Target: Aspartate aminotransferase
Amino acid sequence: MLPDHQFLRIPGPSPIPPSVQRAMNQPMIGHRDQETKHLLHSIQPALKPIFGTKQNVLIMSGSGTASLESAVVNAVHPGDKVLVIVTGAFGDRFVQICAEYQIAINRHDVEWGEAVEPGAIKDYLKNHPGIKAVFATFCETSTGVLNPIQELGQIIRQHSDALFIVDGVSCVGGVEVKMDAWAIDILISGSQKALMLPPGLTFAAVSERAWKVIEKNDRPSFYLDLTKYRDQLENDTTPFTPAVSLLFGLKQMLELIEQEGLEEAFARHRQMMNMTRSAFRSLGIPLLTSDKAASPTTTAIRPDDFDPDILRNVLKKEFNLTVAGGQKHLKSKIFRIGHMGYCSPADILQTISIIEVALRKIGKQVELGSGTRAAQEILLSGGS
Amino acid sequence: MLPDHQFLRIPGPSPIPPSVQRAMNQPMIGHRDQETKHLLHSIQPALKPIFGTKQNVLIMSGSGTASLESAVVNAVHPGDKVLVIVTGAFGDRFVQICAEYQIAINRHDVEWGEAVEPGAIKDYLKNHPGIKAVFATFCETSTGVLNPIQELGQIIRQHSDALFIVDGVSCVGGVEVKMDAWAIDILISGSQKALMLPPGLTFAAVSERAWKVIEKNDRPSFYLDLTKYRDQLENDTTPFTPAVSLLFGLKQMLELIEQEGLEEAFARHRQMMNMTRSAFRSLGIPLLTSDKAASPTTTAIRPDDFDPDILRNVLKKEFNLTVAGGQKHLKSKIFRIGHMGYCSPADILQTISIIEVALRKIGKQVELGSGTRAAQEILLSGGS
Model:
């Protein structure tokens, strides 16, 4: 096998573009120097449209979970009733965080692999007044489901006074989101998914409505205190030493998104999703999600006649191609392909054609090239 | 001025070695893959001696403050009485964090520029039984003071049952520390100082005694919950997606420390301190701290006949040499030179000789070369 040749097709971390790598190679600078101020200042105008907001996008150093927790500790008062929509492992993470903080949790569970039904949330909110916040996962990484955030936002605003808090870690940058227009109050993301950076930065954009709630909250917090980040960002700085090399990369990543165009990036992600789904359909291997619930950034496949972990082992060992397995009760039942960030339709053709070979190696009698051809047809038709 | 040529001599972030930069350029890998497990596994044996401990060194993604806060939320129960030794801005940060968390704070203030007197802490502990934790800053970045942590550890263990919690962010890797032998219970550090990495990783090593306290603490925390990091590290993984590119760098940084030798690295830092101090003495420009209180990683200079910020401006504009100013009430009264991490005695000669030129440019009549000569003499004598 050719050394130093690898394919990372998991739902994050995702591959790093060469120009982002080069940008991160800049010599270190002082975090309180003018250079860092200029950097932070120049980042905001390009970052806001990706979140679909006029608000500043707060930048914290840490994992995505740090931002998820910051939303909980800043925007939910002790004793508040909240509704957590759980469509997979990351919805469950919101539950775990809320459970730490003496919050009255109502959980709305949806079968893994399905998206939440907005009508059910409407009914719930009508029958349960006094919900202070609704938590939802935009793309549920564990299943490849994209939840209908736009409709949820409308319903929540119409039928409650709850804040709408959205985990967009595994899709912001890869799918359209209009935080302000869709009535999202806190939108979280992370650097290592569709945003084409290494892990280590996490983002939170906060609505005016949410700031009003946050300012009245006296729950203790220091590192995760969002007001500190907001106030310092107004002076183009951060409350704590930021991950400077990742900021260099962030700046360059924003250039790449500008070069491609945000709409074009969204279309590319939809196309990669359609190519992947069409390929497995053509191969006769079942998908976990319906077309309607499918995410443009991650596809979960649920084979009915082979062990996905055996396929993953062959892919890894013989091609250095990494795809993800299933989590929790879907462990050894599904495998997941990440097609987000620095990943193109051409990469999907390669991924599918490798998988076809590997399927034959594990004894699954597929017609070689049939999945690839299905993906090629989507590509030729421009279908996104 | 030669473009793309800069000198970063602040007390962190510090410059990045080329081989560490190259290491961070590796293609991204999955954070749950074997590669990451091997990486985390291989890091521990080399990291522990730097902290002087047999404990695992927990690795979090975030700023140093995240680890400082983790020590507070994990190891101090609500209502506990603590003693915070404040010798500058970072001692004060411990006070701010404790103040968020309903902790009964006793602060022991020391004049900025001086180290704490261990005898005073002994007396305090004798007269104030029931102190549950003592917080101290090892190197106080804001003044260039190195506090006598070894003696403090002895005194605290002898005269109390308090946990000893030490902020070693700006010196671990540059000065000797024996966490286990010195009776330190939690030792914190950060990636961007003597450890030669970009900011974005922070470290916490925890004693058996401290784990016993932590396990009984039910204060809410999720991202900063140290038991999560401990438990996952036993399986060579992390509870949340780590800053993978910085882990690549960390591994290479540890190789560099092994190549040099830890004792040799400590000696180099002492030598750089002695060279810097001798140079300013010879130039007749006062130092902020006494020899006894001086840190091997940072030197603060307190000029009595020129504005340090004017000097800093000339250094930045004409040489692209960055040194730090003063913080809080020492603003515009001192400047600080960082000599830590990827910085050699030869770099100190260059720094001093540039500063001599800049001093003449701002009208300070120093004898050119006299500071450099004093530093050279230290270097020739091998004095560390």
